Here is the input.
Amino acid sequence: MKWSIHGNGKTITPGEVVAPEERLHWPQTISIGAQHILAMFGATILVPTLTGFPVTTTLLFTGIATIIFLLVTRNRVPSYLGSSFALIAPVVAATNAHDMTAALGGIVMTGAALFLVGLIVQKTGTGWIHSLMPPVVMGTIVALIGLNLASATLAPMQQFPLTTFLTVLAVVIATVAFKGLLGRLSILVGLVAGYLVALLQGQVDFSAVSEAAWFGLPAFHTPTFQFDTALLFLPAVFVLVAENIGHVRTVGVMTGKDLSQFNGRALMADGAASVLAGLGGGSATTTYAENIGVMAASRVYSTAAYWVAAVVAMALAFLPKFGALIGTIPLGVIGGLGIVLYGMIGIVGARLWIENKVDFGNPINLMTAGTGLIIAIAVTQELSFGQFQLGGIALGTLATLIVFHVMSAVARLRGNNLAAPAAADTPAQP
Here is the structure.
């Protein structure tokens, strides 16, 4: 919990960075922490808004999760653990099939599975992950999550077309029109712009804000465990693994340090944090690429700034009126942001294919991706298989894994050179 002062504590020499174990003087560190809050805020509050979870509860557990992550990684891996988009679809499906508590049970199971994966990685390394999920498989799983969510944006487009599409327009323009931090906060800019458009059309109801108290405890909920929801959340584990390993690798490259020894710890920390969030009513957590942008721009990788961000996020959780204000975000704005975000998740999968030079001239890769994507896109409601009910994401993920490994195994048995060895690179950060 100690940081050495970098240089004079006020400025950074060109070509240097503030390392995770260093910090600037506290006024500068607090300023960087404030930037991290802004960077994570739009996406973090959007997840509970989309899933119907209490916003303040989610904020509280993201702050706690960040502290857990920093402690478990020995204060050497700077990261904010915000709300995970990978669990939106299974959470919505579990809530519709049962209720919110069943979705929380799924989050707990996801976190526990991620913790176990981290424990294994800490002992054995990441080689087995690359064998199980080579780039074509991981890219397909990430892409199908975003594409499966696309149907959720149809109702806002039909009911509030002006608000929905102007929100999209605001996000895409802000992304390229602004430089620096504001450009990286395009989701937040789009949210504000869309909110104003909805306000002008009388689509915002402030009654809940006036009734809410200024100070109070967040709303806590306990999970229930439904057997049929387990497979709904399985695909999210794969995505969380990729996000965490990708984050550790990216920070290591940017700071010039080998942080691979912390891969297992990062996974265990995120898993433990998601378990805790599920036990109390918060959203599942993951490392945030948004905050990597802040570090790259500021050249400050100090974990001290993340402690500041975590404490402030936890403080916001005790303002019910703030949570009620977030709850007034209209459906059209949520739909517009969903169009952009779900699309970005889908394209990140394609980026993984490109970065790892996946050869789609190979029919194994082509059929693996095509089968998984079509199933995930087509299945917008759960299908029943005996006692199990599986949604498009779960079915698409299972199909992706089965098609790739069955085709590869048969090709190897037949001596077919189509079964190329899996790439050893760590998947990129979604």
Observations:
- Strands lie at 4-5, 22-23, 81-83, 285-287, 383-385, 388-390.
- The first helix runs from residue 26 to 51.
- The radius of gyration is 21 Å.
